[in-house]
Design brief:
With 262 residues, the protein is α+β, with helices and mostly antiparallel strands. It is built from six helices and five strands; from the N terminus they run E-H-H-H-H-E-E-H-E-E-H.
Length: 262
């Protein structure tokens, strides 16, 4: 047997509640259609923005790494200059030594600084090779980043154009949606939003068509159809979970809303 909500004591009749619910559904469905026109653009834009943020972070990190390696190269060059100065100093001191021990000691210092220079030169070559590779990757990252930014600009412009075309109608419908919500008691409004959030097409309130709930092929028993047409109870379809209204009420509210939108 279909589920049915218990009628709440108040000034609105069940029929008025059903009309208010279906009217809200019609308005929200119109809003859904306007937003569907935007298609996947908002999601595509969001994905592009995430990609650009990731690429920008990667680009900045790589730039920082290159700068750090260049600083290391600079340090090595300074170290080479210091070693060269020390070698020059030790060679001059060798000319004034008093014995072989002092000469040998200075020779060892010269040999050590010479090795330090060779090691520094080796590190510089390694760093310069690393910098060259990173700059190549950086260039590709920059090109990719620029391409993504251009794609984003195109898609954002396309979306802005669509929004501009539909914004006026959407604002009007959103205003009517809020107005329609005020005519529905909180309990029913929460139920409507809960059902709407669960179904794929957002249809929480549907008319009975060909003895079935709108969008369903499962037949509704004749007595249940009579109950729906009597508008004395708020009836929920036991198969789809949607609130049901009769076809006549649906047609009347659809015509009423069409005049408003026009």
């Amino acid at each position: 047997m279909a589920k049915q909500a218990v009628k709440k004591t108040g000034t609105s009749s069940v029929e008025e509640k059903l009309r208010a619910l279906y009217r809200l559904q019609l308005i929200d469905s119109q809003i859904d259609k306007l937003r569907t026109v935007r298609g996947e653009l908002p999601l595509q834009i969001e994905d592009l923005e995430d990609e650009i943020a990731g690429l920008s972070t990667r680009y900045e990190k790589m730039n920082s790494e290159i700068e750090s390696i260049e600083n290391q190269v600079s340090d090595k060059r300074n170290a080479i200059k210091e070693s060269e100065d020390l070698i020059k100093k030790y060679e001059e001191q060798q000319n004034n030594v008093r014995n072989n021990r002092e000469f040998d000691s200075l020779s060892k210092e010269i040999e050590f600084q010479t090795l330090e220079i060779k090691l520094a030169e080796k590190r510089i070559k390694e760093h310069e090779f690393e910098i060259s590779n990173k700059k190549e990757v950086l260039q590709k990252a920059q090109e990719e980043l620029e391409d993504k930014k251009k794609d984003l600009e195109v898609k954002q412009s396309e979306l802005d154009g669509i929004v501009a075309d539909t914004e006026k109608d959407e604002k009007k419908l959103l205003k009517e949606s809020k107005k329609a919500e005020k005519a529905i008691e909180e309990r029913l409004l929460k139920a409507y939003k809960r059902i709407r959030g669960k179904v794929a097409n957002g249809m929480a309130v549907v008319p009975v068509e060909r003895h079935s709930a709108g969008g369903s092929y499962i037949q509704i028993p004749p007595q249940r159809i009579l109950d729906i047409g009597a508008r004395k109870k708020i009836i929920v379809d036991e198969h789809s979970g949607r609130i049901l209204v009769d076809n006549e009420l649906a047609a009347e509210e659809t015509e009423s809303l069409a005049k408003l939108v026009k």
